[in-house]
Amino acid sequence: MSQPAQKSIKKSAASEWWETIVVVVEALLIAIILRSFLYQPFSIPTASMQQTLMIGDYFVANKYVWGYGKHSFSLGRYGNFSALDFELPITNRIFGRDPNRGDVAVFRPVPQNMEYIKRVVGMPGDRIQVRQGRLFINGTMVEREVIGTTQDTDSEGQTREVTVYRETFPEGSDHIIQEISDEGPLDNTPEFVVPAGHYFMMGDNRDRSADSRVLSQVGYVPAINLIAKAEARFFSIKDNIPPWQIWQWPANVRWDRMFQPID
Description:
single chain; alpha+beta; Umud Fragment, subunit A; 4-stranded antiparallel beta sheet; 17 strands
């Protein structure tokens, strides 16, 4: 083989390697941009939002709908996952709109260094109280109707019977909640007045949720600490089994919970 032909083959091989590297880098950049500015995946490690979000659910959250705040671009922590923590040096959200009552939000509580997910229950200026398990907003008891009973298992494997309700907010949106009883530690609270620029969050699994009712742990959530709005489940597996264990899928994947919107 002549020397020019050998050089051409070497040049072609080097060019293919370079093109492959460029494609990989471009794909990574696109993934980073999508995750940072548009949509971010999360998983559920705790029982606080069951049945809306079960332990082992994977969902995608919209990062741009409410604009961008302090922790919007932080990998941060969620459950047992820890990564790079980056905080924007801003005092107001950039772009976006305010959440609605009933939205399911990913956020960073002020006293914490990890992400939480709960439902927006109280808007700025609202008076929120729980009396004998019933939620009151601005002095009016929120409607709820019994759907039935079921078994609920938390992240420590403890199973309890719970009553399932459909709760309807004053604006008309409804969602599913569940209660072990109406006499739990957080079923009778003082009246909370939500400060301006803050939101009051509660888990749908009312007796297994540390939320804004616990001021020392979550408390009122500043608007600037909102990260994303939960929109849709894309995967769900029992017992928090790692999704890469494909051989466990047939017996453990919750096929009926996949590709479902989050209400």
